[in-house]
């Protein structure tokens, strides 16, 4: 495993752990728990998608797994935004998490683009 892949595995796992910690701090209201469970599912699956992409047997499988991770990141952002807009969690508490989600999206998109470009040549 190269250094960049190792760093991204650590980073996606750290992201999942941050999501878990956020979930444990949510109020016990029904709406917070419903949104929280959706957030927990999508936010923790990003790293699993990356791990599957890393172990893929083909470029097509790699792209498919990373695109699945992208969908989960987009969904995670949606649930975080709902927590803020429903005034369940203040935006300032979630700004770093949103920033990390957007950075991971950029990395995943660039990786998919690189592999797709390789096949266009």
What count of helical segments does DSSP give?
A: 4
Average residue pLDDT: 94
Quaternary arrangement of the chains shown?
single chain
Question: What percent of residues are in strands?
Answer: under 5%
Which secondary-structure class do the elements indicate? Answer: mainly alpha
Q: Can you tell me the CATH class?
A: Mainly Alpha
Q: List low-pLDDT spans.
A: none
**Which percent bin holds the helix content?**
over 70%
CATH topology: de novo design (two linked rop proteins)
Distance between the termini: 26 Å
Give the CA-based shape. Answer: elongated
Number of strands: 0
Describe this protein's structure.
Pfam families: 23S_rRNA_IVP. This is Four helix bundle protein. This protein is an all-alpha fold. The protein has a single domain (3-120), classed as Up-down Bundle (de novo design (two linked rop proteins)), CATH 1.20.1440.60. It is 87% helix and 0% strand. It has 4 helices and no strands. It has helices spanning 3-25, 30-54, 59-85, 91-120. The longest helix is centred in the last third of the chain and has 30 residues, at 91-120.
Condensed summary:
The chain has 121 residues and is mainly α.
């Amino acid at each position: 495993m190269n250094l960049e892949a190792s760093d991204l595995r650590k980073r996606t796992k750290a992201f999942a752990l941050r999501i878990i910690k956020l979930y444990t701090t949510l109020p016990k209201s029904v709406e917070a728990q419903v949104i929280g469970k959706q957030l927990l599912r999508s936010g923790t699956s990003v790293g699993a998608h990356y791990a599957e992409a890393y172990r893929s047997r083909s470029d097509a499988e790699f792209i498919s797994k990373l695109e699945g991770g992208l969908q989960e990141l987009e969904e995670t952002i949606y649930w975080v935004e709902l927590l803020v807009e429903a005034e369940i969690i203040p935006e300032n508490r979630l700004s770093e998490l949103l920033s990390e989600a957007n950075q991971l999206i950029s990395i995943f998109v660039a990786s998919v683009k690189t592999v797709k470009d390789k096949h266009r040549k």
